Each structure stands twice: as structure tokens, then as C-alpha cells.
Amino acid sequence: MKDxxxxxxxxxxxxxxxxxxxxxxxxxxxxxxxxxxxxxxxTLFATYAYVLRxxxxxxxxxxxxxxxxxxxxxxxxxxxxxxxxxxxxxxSPGVMWYMPATLEDAAVPQHPKExxxxxxxxxxxxxxxxxxxxxxxxxxxxPEVSITARKTDGAA
Length: 156
Ligand SMILES: [Zn+2]
Ligand SMILES: [Zn+2]
Prior knowledge:
Blueprint: E1 9-12, E2 19-22, E3 29-32, H1 35-41, E4 46-52, E5 56-60, E6 65-69, E7 73-78, E8 84-89, E9 95-98, E10 116-119, H2 144-155
Parallel strand pairs: 3-10
Antiparallel strand pairs: 1-2, 2-5, 3-4, 4-9, 6-7, 7-8, 8-9
The chain binds zinc ion (2 copies).
């Protein structure tokens, strides 16, 4: 059975300099509690969704984006307000990560419900309490790379 067509969803930074459009449902949703994500975002954890790179388009403010290269990823953020919008991870070639927290109009990533995970829980901040039933992993969740490979093969 064919899935119904996906209606594009939109996100933007706080100062409205940069906007993006997502043209496919997310493959997975992660809440990452590692110290790197906490510092990048200034939050106790960071939430990521991802789609094929071709399914995400920067619709406004490309010239206002700065890119920070960390040991494992490129981070795209608004150089005016500092809002993190997109990321490319070395472990996931061909896909673009985005921050669902920046979606507009109560849009949601529409990921498969069972794909939602907490990762790097072993390094979470001592002041954080996780109080939901979503699966938790001490570090990476195992399927991350294989699902990316399957999706990329399927699209060729
Ligand atoms: Zn901004
Ligand atoms: Zn992290």
C-alpha cells in the first residue's frame, strides 16, 4: 500500500533569519544526552530527527548560517541568534539531521513511533531525570547506521 503524500513541514531560527523545509517523514527521532550535545545547544539534552539530504532544503538565509565542525559532525546554526537548525554526522552519510524543536506551526517529524530513543544516557547531566518510557541506550542505539544504509540503497 502506498503511503499518503507527505505535506512539507517548516522550521526556522529564533530571529527568523534562517528557514528550512522538510519534504519527508523522519526516519528516526533521538534524544541525545551526551555532554557534547548539551554544550552545543545549552540544554540538558538535544532532540534530532533525520531525512535524506535531498529531502531538506534551506529556504531562507543560507548566507546567515555558520557551520561548526566538531569531531563527528558539521553543525549548521544561525550566526545572529545562535539557533542550531541542521547537522550532518560523519556516521550517517547522505542524511541531514534537523532539530524538531525548531519546527513551526506545531509540525511534527512524523517518525515511526517505535524509532524514538534516548541515547548517551550514561553521560546525562546529574540534574536531569528522564521520566518517560522511551527506550534508553548508554551510548549509540545499534540500528542508526544500518537504517541509513537501507534508505540510501532504496532511493537509488
Ligand atoms: Zn536566527
Ligand atoms: Zn549527543
